[in-house]
Amino acid sequence: MRSLVAPSSENPSPHSGDREGATRLAARLDFLRTASRIPGLAIVILRDTTVILARGFGYADLERAVPVTPETPFNIASVTKPISAVVALRLVERGLLDLDRPLTTYEGFEDFCADVRGEGGIFFRDYECDRYPMTLRHMLSMTANGVTGTRFFYNPPSYSWARPMAQISGTAFSELTANEVFEPAGMTHSARETGEVTLGENLRLICDHLGHIANSAQIQSAVAVRRQFTRASPVPRDDALQALSDLRAMGFSIGLISDCCDVVSQLWETTSLAPHLDAAILSFRVGMRKPERRIYTLASEALSVESSRCLYVGDGGSHELTGAVRAGMEAILLLVEAEIDLDPYRPDARTWTGPAIGSLTELVHILRAGRRPTSRCT
Predict the structure, then answer these.
(1) Each residue of 256-273: pLDDT tens digit?
(2) Is residue 154 pLDDT above 90, yes or no?
């Protein structure tokens, strides 16, 4: 919770009753915070535009015992939607943005549409972006699902596709929010968070969708279990480390593109794979994920190699092979038949008709012999 607004009054000047009531309310909130095991929160209580009380409770960082103050920044999640809307309308006012322009005319929309249609789930199971004309007005007014413009359906991931604003202005969206909202409003301690949500935030979102109320202690406990699991789980395939060593000895630069949460990102440098790679592009760090085109170009740039000279090898998760081809790379499916049924999130593994290998060792032999892998027939 960031703020509480008291009922307005014709008299904007705070009086003793306001202060006493605000103090009692603050004490009650701190009691509820402690009972709910919430690490920290900040409140500001207003009468009209006059601040009656601003106070922080608990800690912003438990491990370092950093206290919350009225100036502590918080992630305000979906409350940022009005900020995105203000950016869009500011660009409309300047004649730069047309809310009714078809989204198919913007770079990347067809890829976005294909990805979310394949993903399905609660937000995209009736997202007919490949069937009905869709505009930014539909996205911002939450009328993008079903027959566009006919019904309201709350869809945060759709709302978050801000590519048109960045494209028509030639400015990154983070800069747009700073230039169009934060600076004019004097919000000197505000910034757009560009990384993906943390595991803890993701767990809380899942609990919310399931109608389960999880307190902070429970979320932290679950994150600790996942961290313990992650620390023990990144064991490479039996032939992986030897194959990577052989490929580097042959003169190849090797990079990794991985969709991962903050826990994997934090532990990455401690894994046995890290020393064998020349570059690692982790989704949590770069704020994007496969199969977005940009994440592949980040990898080729990190390796100082043109995308057209890159060979992407993957097991088919997250439409990664399709994304690599769209980015101009060659792609090979690493197909270990025994693993397919264990992981339902490998869509390319079931539909891929391009080249396939059964192990990384096979890839080494093929490249050493100057041959090309054969295509897989479905």
Answers:
(1) 999 887 788 888 888 888
(2) yes
177 three-class SS:
helix
Structure tokens that stand for 45 in this block: 């209580």
Q: Are 9 and 48 a contacting pair, CB within 8 Å?
A: yes
Q: Which of 204, 238, 266, 278 is nearest to 362 (CA)?
A: 238
Q: Which two tokens stand for residue 340?
A: 């397919």
Please classify residue 320 by burial: count the beta carbons closer than 10 Å to its beta carbon, then call 0-12 exposed, 13-18 middle and 19+ buried.
buried
pTM of the model: 0.53
Return the closest-CA partner of residue 289 out of 265, 309, 254.
265
- Domains for the chain: give ranges and CATH numbers: 4-74 (no CATH), 79-182 (no CATH), 199-229 (no CATH), 234-368 (3.40.50.1000)
C-alpha to C-alpha distance for 2 and 56, rounded to whole angstroms: 10
In one-letter notation, the amino acid at residue 156 is P
pLDDT 10s digits, 38-66: 889 999 999 888 999 999 999 988 777 88
Contacts of 19 (CB under 8 A, 6+ apart): 52, 53
